[in-house]
Design a protein that fits this description.
Elements: E1 2-7, E2 10-18, E3 25-32, H1 37-40
Antiparallel strand pairs: 1-2, 2-3
Length: 43
């Protein structure tokens, strides 16, 4: 499952997945600093 959210002026994405070898749920996330102006005005 993936989710995106905006925190102030930065965007963050989070991916939750199940590791096939260990069968444990894992999570990866990353935040991106600046958002290009052409994407800020879109809804």
């Amino acid at each position: 499952m993936a989710s995106f959210r905006k925190r102030g002026s930065t965007w963050e994405y989070r991916i939750v997945y199940t590791d096939r070898q260990t069968r444990k749920q894992k999570e990866k996330s990353k935040a991106k600093g600046k958002v290009e102006r052409r994407f800020q005005n879109q809804t």
